[in-house]
């Protein structure tokens, strides 16, 4: 008769089920099982939220991109017609150029200003708590309120900025929101002013992770403030820098935060100079009822974002940095 019971490995003692080691082993497995269950319970709400509010709309947008849906229940399959249309749509490519210009200003602007602020409040600045709160304060305000306030401040004749410039001797101040050459700059600079407090907190966390012994060793070796910043702080801040740059790039390309400002301040004008990609998609979907065409543009937009994010992770090996490199 064949013995089906497992045999213990030679030279390897096994715990008896009822012995002390067996009870400890069973207790460890039960604890691990409870931790696995707890972990699943923690991630389940977030997973369901992402599935319902992110993945499902993405799939629906992908499907609607092959139709002429108008948002009122009229849906007809049109194949790749929407994708052929966006290739020849000058306003679509104009919105892409506007988005690219916005990102070129927004991403480095946010990083440089936020890093400068983080270095200030991480150093021997008097009243650091006050300045940390003051720098972060704009981020606590609704972006719609920020847009309304800045719209009145930048008004042509009665705005605070125009009156201040006249007080400084500028007889004919520019129309900040009415001139195509100024409007996008204003939106980008207001976006930077609004978001730097949030990214300052992230960079401040990265700065505080740098061991003080390392900074002290650099100082004892004769490194000055700029040399310490360039040779010690910035290399050790690379993971946080990567995170901030990826986050700001995605935020800038998606244009979700700029959408509120553009909607309140310029409505995409003047002459479509502030019509970023996400705003043009909104106009097509909810102003002109071209839901199918807007879905096709949104799909292209999402694929471009995924591709850029994948490239960034590929270059940085998934955001892992080895200080020995």
TrEMBL record:
<dbReference type="InterPro" id="IPR051393">
    <property type="entry name" value="ABC_transporter_permease"/>
</dbReference>
<feature type="transmembrane region" description="Helical">
    <location>
        <begin position="182"/>
        <end position="204"/>
    </location>
</feature>
<feature type="transmembrane region" description="Helical">
    <location>
        <begin position="291"/>
        <end position="313"/>
    </location>
</feature>
<keyword id="KW-0812">Transmembrane</keyword>
<dbReference type="InterPro" id="IPR000515">
    <property type="entry name" value="MetI-like"/>
</dbReference>
<dbReference type="InterPro" id="IPR035906">
    <property type="entry name" value="MetI-like_sf"/>
</dbReference>
<feature type="transmembrane region" description="Helical">
    <location>
        <begin position="37"/>
        <end position="66"/>
    </location>
</feature>
<dbReference type="Pfam" id="PF00528">
    <property type="entry name" value="BPD_transp_1"/>
</dbReference>
<keyword id="KW-0762">Sugar transport</keyword>
<feature type="transmembrane region" description="Helical">
    <location>
        <begin position="133"/>
        <end position="153"/>
    </location>
</feature>
<feature type="region of interest" description="Disordered">
    <location>
        <begin position="1"/>
        <end position="31"/>
    </location>
</feature>
<feature type="transmembrane region" description="Helical">
    <location>
        <begin position="100"/>
        <end position="121"/>
    </location>
</feature>
<dbReference type="GO" id="GO:0055085">
    <property type="term" value="P:transmembrane transport"/>
</dbReference>
<keyword id="KW-0813">Transport</keyword>
<protein>
    <submittedName>
        <fullName>Multiple sugar transport system permease protein</fullName>
    </submittedName>
</protein>
<feature type="domain" description="ABC transmembrane type-1">
    <location>
        <begin position="96"/>
        <end position="312"/>
    </location>
</feature>
<comment type="similarity">
    <text>Belongs to the binding-protein-dependent transport system permease family.</text>
</comment>
<dbReference type="GO" id="GO:0005886">
    <property type="term" value="C:plasma membrane"/>
</dbReference>
<keyword id="KW-0472">Membrane</keyword>
<feature type="transmembrane region" description="Helical">
    <location>
        <begin position="242"/>
        <end position="266"/>
    </location>
</feature>
<keyword id="KW-1133">Transmembrane helix</keyword>
<feature type="compositionally biased region" description="Low complexity">
    <location>
        <begin position="7"/>
        <end position="18"/>
    </location>
</feature>
<keyword id="KW-1003">Cell membrane</keyword>
């Amino acid at each position: 008769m064949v013995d089906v019971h497992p045999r213990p490995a030679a030279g390897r003692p096994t715990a008896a089920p009822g012995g002390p080691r067996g009870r400890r082993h069973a207790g460890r497995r039960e604890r691990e099982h409870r931790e696995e269950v707890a972990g699943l319970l923690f991630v389940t709400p977030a997973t369901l939220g992402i599935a319902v509010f992110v993945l499902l709309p993405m799939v629906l947008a992908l499907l609607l991109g092959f139709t002429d849906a108008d948002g009122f229940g009229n849906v007809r399959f049109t194949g790749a017609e929407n994708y052929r249309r966006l290739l020849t749509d000058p306003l679509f490519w104009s919105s892409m150029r506007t988005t690219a210009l916005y990102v070129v200003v927004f991403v480095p602007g946010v990083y440089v200003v936020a890093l400068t602020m983080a270095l200030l409040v991480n150093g021997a600045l008097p009243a650091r708590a006050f300045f940390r709160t003051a720098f972060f304060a704009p981020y606590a305000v609704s972006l719609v309120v920020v847009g309304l306030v800045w719209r009145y401040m930048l008004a042509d004749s009665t705005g605070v900025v125009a009156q201040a410039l006249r007080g400084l001797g500028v007889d004919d101040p520019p129309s900040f929101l009415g001139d195509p050459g100024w409007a996008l700059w204003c939106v980008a600079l207001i976006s930077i002013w609004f978001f730097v407090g949030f990214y300052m907190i992230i960079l401040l966390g990265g700065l505080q992770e740098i061991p003080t012994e390392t900074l002290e060793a650099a100082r004892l070796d004769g490194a000055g403030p700029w040399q310490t910043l360039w040779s010690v702080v910035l290399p050790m801040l690379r993971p946080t820098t990567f995170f901030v740059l990826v986050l700001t790039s995605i935020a800038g390309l998606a244009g979700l935060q700029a959408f509120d400002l553009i909607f309140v301040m310029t409505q995409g004008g003047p002459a479509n100079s502030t019509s970023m990609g996400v705003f043009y998609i909104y106009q097509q979907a909810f102003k002109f009822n071209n839901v199918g065409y807007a879905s096709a543009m949104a799909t292209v937009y999402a694929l471009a974002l995924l591709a850029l994010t994948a490239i960034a992770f590929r270059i940085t090996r998934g955001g892992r940095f080895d200080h020995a490199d």
